[in-house]
Design a protein that fits this description.
Length: about 120
């Protein structure tokens, strides 16, 4: 019998996952929608696309779910999350929110009907 004990990684869903979050990874411009976020917001990546509306004066971003079309952003499967990558959109968010281009940033999502409001987590 071995004296070694296996220490396994536990996956616990705590309070930090109750509020929907999105990660913006810069400089790549990858927007990550985690599985729990997609479930909480009822996002169907197969049928729905995402559209961003930016107000530069108020530094706010409104996000709407739409039927998938050529002009909106589509989420694709990645390991453990859904995402899309758009470097220009990442730079726009960096300029709007004065973000560091060498790290990842997180945003809370609040849903109101079919519209979401993104707010930067400081």
């Amino acid at each position: 019998m071995s004296e070694f004990i296996a220490i396994r990684k536990e996956r616990i869903t705590g309070t930090k996952h109750k509020i929907p979050k999105v990660c913006l990874s810069l400089p790549k411009g990858e927007f990550r929608f985690y599985k729990s976020t997609c479930e909480l917001l009822n996002i169907d990546p197969v049928k729905q696309g995402i559209m961003f509306y930016i107000n530069k004066e108020e530094k706010k971003v409104r996000v709407e779910l739409e039927e998938k079309q050529d002009d909106n952003y589509h989420l694709s499967d990645r390991k453990g999350y859904k995402a899309f990558t758009n470097k220009v959109m990442g730079i726009l968010f960096s300029d709007l929110f004065d973000l560091d281009m060498e790290t990842s940033h997180y945003f809370n999502f609040k849903k109101k009907e079919n519209t979401f409001i993104m707010t930067l987590i400081l």
